[in-house]
Amino acid sequence: MSLTLYHPFSRNSHFSFSLLGINRYYDNLEMMFGFRIAPVMKICWMFVTPLFSLTIFIMGAISYSELTYKRKTYEYTYPSWAIGVGWMLALVSVIWIPITFLKRVIDAEGSIAQRLMSTTRPILKRHQLRQGEDLTKVVLDESCSFDPDDPILQGLDPRDEPLLANSVELQKIENSKRNETNGV
């Protein structure tokens, strides 16, 4: 019997902050918890966790063996097709990450270095920007821009919507209402 401490296809916090950036991830945690967590956690997420995860992954790959079911009187070895089905089930959800990355690198313009830089920057909507955001480090996606005149949103109080509260979108709604009352 073996105990799996790490599954190479599992989702963990390292994946989240590697896409968002450690400072943005740290700020998001502060917003959720209501207080800033210890700075040592930032160091752990940047160095200790990836090193520990990589070590466990390498050790698991080195000591990999086919799955068997052992009892006192009987040992069952799973057939190759069953092991293949298990690997296919594990890979079907994960394979899309490198495929999507490669597609975006191929579709991007510029040299290989420029392509890699543009595909690894976070794509943010306007309401996700922080005050004083360095726009050279992010890609601004305005394809889903917010329209306060949208008939679906008429009569909606943005303060009741957690996604809109304290955001740039809330400011847009309030400005459009002010303009309507002032006759502009």
UniProtKB/TrEMBL annotation:
UniProt membrane topology term: Multi-pass membrane protein
Compartments in which it is found: Membrane
Predominant localisation class: membrane
One Pfam family in the UniProt entry: SNF
Spans traversing the lipid bilayer: 43-64, 76-97
Entries under InterPro entries matching the protein: Na/ntran_symport, SNS_sf
Extent of the signal sequence: none
Coiled-coil residue windows: none
GO terms under cellular component: plasma membrane
Name of the featured protein: Uncharacterized protein
GO BP term (any one): sodium ion transmembrane transport
Organism: Magallana gigas (Pacific oyster)
UniProt keywords, alphabetically: Membrane, Transmembrane, Transmembrane helix, Transport
